[in-house]
Amino acid sequence: MSRTDAALRPVDRSGFDAAAPEARAWDALFEAAAQPHPHFSRHVLAAHGAAGLVPPGLRFITVRREDRLTALLPCAPARDLSGLGGRVMRPFLSPFVTATAPLIADGPERATHAHDLVVALEAASAGAAWRWPLLPTREGAVPDMLSAMRARGWGIGIVAAFDRPVMDRRPDHDAFLADHPNRSRFKDLRRRARRLSEAGSVAFTTAMSGADLSRLVAAFLELERAGWKGQAGTAMACRPETEALAGALFADQAGPVGVRADALTLDGRPVAVSLALVGAGTATLLKTAYDEALRSHAPGLLMEAEIVRACHETGFADRLDSATLDGSALESLYRDRTAIAEIIALPPGYHMLSLERRLRLARFEQEARAVAKRALRRR
Asked: Is the dihedral of CA 90, 21, 42, 279 positive or negative?
């Protein structure tokens, strides 16, 4: 069957439901998806639900062929400035979500699955616009989805875009360092490591389950609360629901998404902690905190450099995803990039507001948020 014929074949079933998909089918889709991120996995959505951080209007757009789940997007309607306070559709978001690509099964019929999802998006939105932040536009099946949207008459515009640092594992650590464009950064880190070692015994440690994992999660919460995020009230431990999310999110559970905690210690005390979700060959380095009293020694970057080394030595992932926004310190450490964009997508049909006006409103809101964030960090 040609790709064109497959695209015209009726979908066995699509849905737009409050009920989550069956666990086994959801996990199977994650494992079969094209470059999936962990945020739309069963583990992450369940953790948000356990912490009371799932919006009441959350729905799951699903597509099935021959009783196999082939595409999934958790989403919810929201009133948004880009619609002058009107209703728009958005993928599931929380302050801890760093990517929003739908899960779409990989393979010869990937473009067909993406087309089926676009048809389901149109039906679910009932003509409403989609505001879609943190979309990795060149990864996995996202190009197929955007191509299907354009082919069906969607209008698509970019609010903002940036290149996120990622690290694709080389054959070994020496190969990673060879011809690195920022070799001076590693020289500086070696100097800082020597200075830190003058204050005590420095070690790198990792935990993926049990009491050691719980201990490093607790250390992360303590470090983050002691820093500027704690002063601003945005650390995870500052609110009961986000502290509960940390406990549920970074807990060892069965399924295709695992947990990894890395730490740099000084005389056995964690001075930097990274919490990651690992699945489908990618480690998403979701949260990092360090002892800000040791800022001059750059303990956070020293730890990140050790994570890069460990990735090459143990092969725990094929890619490290920094999960950062624009302007990350990891830009000097990671050699590779992936394009991240916020888009507004209009299904075909009549719209009161033009795409261009929606884009202007969204950009205005984004700039206002950036100004407020900079002011908060100066407090």
From this structure: negative
